[in-house]
Amino acid sequence: MHRVAAVKKTAPRPSEEARWKKLRSQLSEQGKQLASTREELQETREDLQGRLSSTRDELSTSIARNHDELVAFQKRGERNYYEFQLAKSKQFQRVGPISLSLRKANTKRKSYDLAMIVDDMQLQKKSVNLYEPVLINLSDRPQPVELVINRISKDSVAGYVSEPKYRKSELAAAATGENKAQPSERQPLQPLKQ
Fold this sequence. Notes:
With about 190 residues, this protein is α+β, with helices and mostly antiparallel strands. It has helices at about 15-60, 65-75, 170-180; strands at about 80-85, 95, 100-105, 110-120, 120-130, 135, 145-150, 155-165. It folds into two domains: about 15-60; about 65-170, Tick-borne Encephalitis virus Glycoprotein, domain 1, CATH 2.60.98. β4 (about 110-120) and β5 form a beta hairpin.
């Protein structure tokens, strides 16, 4: 006959019990930190989504989708606007400060390919979507020139080019002219107090 030896259970030693308590408290603290980080992450995500939708709204309102909206932009007086219609051709057509040539119009995908002459350089822009602004930096403009196509047909497109009202050279001349013409309105510099 086999005898089964009784195993005596012993209580954990006091030093082991202290280690377990310490581990539990550390795990609890890390759980709280994780929950706090998750909340902060969610708040940041919501804030970024709000800013992104606000930016999208601002951008979508700065693109004229038809002639009436373009007239409304012109009335603001911040930029010059040039409406145009381009037929598919290898010849360039002057529109405001740039020259354009339509190379391809895709009504199914609502996109187009365009060749441009900008500051005496020829550039290609391919697969541009309807209403997608093409920003072009010119050497003498404080802000980019904007090209938007708001209508695509089989072999032609229509849209507009907008440019800043004034060139950098005109702004610089106006700034120096104002300073020379009205010296009495300038305030004298005050010495720094030490």
